[in-house]
């Protein structure tokens, strides 16, 4: 009865949204990755930070595990930032990082994002590293990258840069697709990210997105449903 009522509430609240419900295979894959991250980077030692809109579903899952060490860094258009030469804009970005990145607790910072070709990912990594080394050299940090398991060249490049790679299958490698990589590749969850697209070197402030709370509720309902079916989510 409770599940039926919850499903109805979610359906009504999302009726005006072009939302996407994760497939069973994608849900299980995301669950596995989220629990692995939560176990590896524990609350008392690490802060987990999703970069940009790509890891939206993973961040929603982690937040629904009631973790206190999960946050989000709105960051877009990194594929064009390498053309910026104005030092004032760099200072603006660093000031933005200082206000958004949870450095105050002095815990290890773990940044998570999806990468297709590597350019945007490496651009944001370079910028975040420069900020941390200049402003908070005492803080440890690590970068996680969600990449296609068949992109051996990108995986080798990231490994050489000490980036922790999480390999994802696509529907081309699995009969159970679409999977998480397919959704990230198609930007399926970006409309539901906690914040809208934001480039910190431009004027303005990041704008929150009310769709994220609806989407997080959807993910929570899926977690509840899987638990009711005997699919344990406790770790």
Question: Main traits of this protein?
Answer:
Rossmann fold; single chain; alpha/beta; 43% helix; disordered N terminus; 235 residues
Q: Say how many strands there are.
A: 5
- How many structural domains in the coordinates? 1
Q: CA-to-CA gap between the ends?
A: 27 Å
**Reading side by side through the largest sheet, how are the strands ordered?**
2-1-3-4-5
Residue share in β-strands: 5-15%
**What structural class should be given to the helix and strand makeup?**
alpha/beta
What are the low-pLDDT stretches, counting only 5+ consecutive residues below 50?
Answer: 1-17, 228-235
CATH architectural label:
3-Layer(aba) Sandwich
User: Could you estimate the helical fraction of the residues in percent?
Assistant: 40-55%
Average pLDDT works out at 84
Give an account of the 3D structure:
The model is unreliable at 1-17 and 228-235 (pLDDT under 50). Strand 3 (108-114), helix 5 (119-135) and strand 4 form a beta-alpha-beta unit. This protein is globular. It has a single domain, classed as Rossmann fold, CATH 3.40.50. The protein has a five-stranded parallel sheet with strand order 2-1-3-4-5, sandwiched between helices. By secondary structure, it is of the alpha/beta class. It has helices at 2-13, 24-40, 56-64, 87-100, 119-135, 152-160, 180-185, 211-228; strands at 46-51, 70-73, 108-114, 141-148, 164-168. 43% of the residues lie in helices and 13% in strands.
């Amino acid at each position: 009865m409770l599940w039926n009522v919850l499903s109805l509430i979610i359906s009504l609240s999302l009726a005006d949204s072009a939302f996407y419900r994760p497939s069973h295979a994608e849900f299980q894959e995301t669950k596995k990755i989220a629990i692995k991250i939560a176990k590896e980077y524990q609350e008392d030692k690490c802060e987990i930070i999703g970069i940009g809109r790509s890891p939206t579903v993973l961040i929603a899952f982690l937040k629904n595990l009631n973790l206190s060490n999960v946050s989000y860094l709105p960051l877009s258009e990194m594929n064009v930032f390498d053309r910026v030469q104005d030092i004032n804009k760099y200072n603006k970005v660093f000031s933005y990082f200082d206000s958004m990145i949870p450095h105050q607790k002095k815990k290890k910072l773990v940044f998570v994002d999806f990468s297709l070709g590597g350019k945007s990912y490496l651009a944001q990594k370079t910028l975040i590293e420069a900020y941390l080394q200049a402003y908070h050299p005492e803080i440890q940090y690590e970068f996680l990258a969600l990449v296609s398991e068949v992109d051996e060249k990108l995986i080798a490049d990231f490994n050489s840069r000490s980036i922790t790679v999480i390999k994802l299958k696509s529907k081309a490698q699995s009969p159970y697709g679409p999977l998480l990589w397919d959704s990230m590749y198609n930007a399926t969850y970006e409309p539901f990210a906690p914040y809208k697209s934001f480039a910190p070197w431009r004027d303005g402030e990041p704008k929150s997105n009310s769709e994220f709370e609806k989407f997080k509720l959807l993910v929570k309902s899926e977690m509840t449903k899987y638990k009711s079916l005997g699919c344990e989510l406790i770790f």
